[in-house]
Amino acid sequence: MSVLYLREICRKMRSIKQTELEPLVRRANQIITEVTQGGRKPCTDVIDVSLGDKHRGGVQPLTFVRQVLAACLYPQLIHSYKLPGDVRQRVQSLLGACDGGSVGSYTPTGGISYIQCSVSNFISRRDGGVPSSPENIFMTSGSQRSIMQVLKMLADFHNQASLPIGVLTAVPTYSSFKMMLQRLGAAVVPYYLDEEQCWAMEVEELRRALQASKGVCNTVALYVINPGNPTGHVQSRKCIEKVIRFAAEERLFLMADEVYQESVFGEGSEFVSYKKVLSELGPPLSHTVELASFHSASKGFMGECGLRGGYVELVNLDPAIMKYAYTLFSTDICAPVTGQLALELMANPPRPGDPSYPVYAQETQSIRAMLVHNMNWVPEFLNNIPGISCQPMMGGAFVFPRLYLPQAAIEKAKVVGMQPDLWYCKRLLEEAGVCVGPGCEYGQKEGTHHIRLCVMTPVETMEEVLKRLKNFHLHFVKEFS
Ligand SMILES: Cc1ncc(COP(=O)(O)O)c(C=O)c1O
User: pTM of the entire structure?
Assistant: First the structure.
């Protein structure tokens, strides 16, 4: 007899909306199997650009990162003459910081203190000297886990109120965030990004959304993704300042998801952290606005998604609440040590003069060149396809072009019981062997349709993706015109 009956699984679990992307990715894998078993038509392979996963897309891992990790896992390698001296030194320092000198040991809850210090120094350097305290940093199994823990903390502190907690959440947004809110029984309070203004965030829209949530939920936090996923927008310093002032006025906890901070290459764009702007605003705001800033080893140059290394820095939380945060994070015991090591290598890469630096510089430069090329060229190409428009990309990993679908195609999608852009993606996958994310997964204005493509993809692969997408789109539009 089954111990778990579906009807017993709590209401919050059942309210989680199944992701639209997962069945597509599963189907893409099935097609790959069909292809290898012989002669599937019309497409003979699948290119998957639906996820922000560099290595999956064909980008190679960084040599320095893998050398250090390999020798940390198998310390006998330290004696290999093939490893550069700085790699050997780093391995010795890192293993020296692990209990028992082994990555197989548990670590303190927030992470190995040596790595907390490295991360904290990285944050301070990044923010032009703004102080950062290692004890405010909690490393987790990917930044997603940090986000979930912070949401749990918010939910725990407000569970006396009669209304569920709500979090202001962008439309479109990173879809797992909505699932996390649903899992906790919290409300998504949607605010719309302005597509015509390159997906900018407007404080007036935040105000409207907050007002609309009154009486429906108890809105306690504002979640911001900068650089944006799926939009590719990068917020200006001025915009961040306005958002912080708004959060202060409305007494909202700020959640700044900054996992794409290393990927800002648009002309005139730069990454400025919420923490830096908050600090520059001075007292009282710099001492009172509560902020959680998230970062990850999954994105940026290293793209080590599978190692599961992320962290949150908590700023301006009351010491009593920090105690509770520690207890909450300790329910995971600790983050995987490999993920923590990845964070240390991200925070502290080789520097000029180090033996590993020339290879590191060449590898990161080639990733940078690929991203810069794709960021400029992909939107331009898409804008030249009739029936597609794409905002310029400033940073992050994705473009989110709008599809202008013929009415007959929209009607047909209704008949097959699918959202129009999901149906479009399904056909694109079956007929052209390209897997992209449907706009309905991330949220979009009623009556609009989009797709999401990851541009952290080698240039030749991206060229093939766009060639197939263009052919498919033109045929699709003709079929329904
Ligand atoms: C905006 C955003 N935040 C957080 C994450 C989670 O990343 P990870 O848990 O791998 O650190 C992702 C993953 O794609 C993301 O796009």
Answer: 0.94
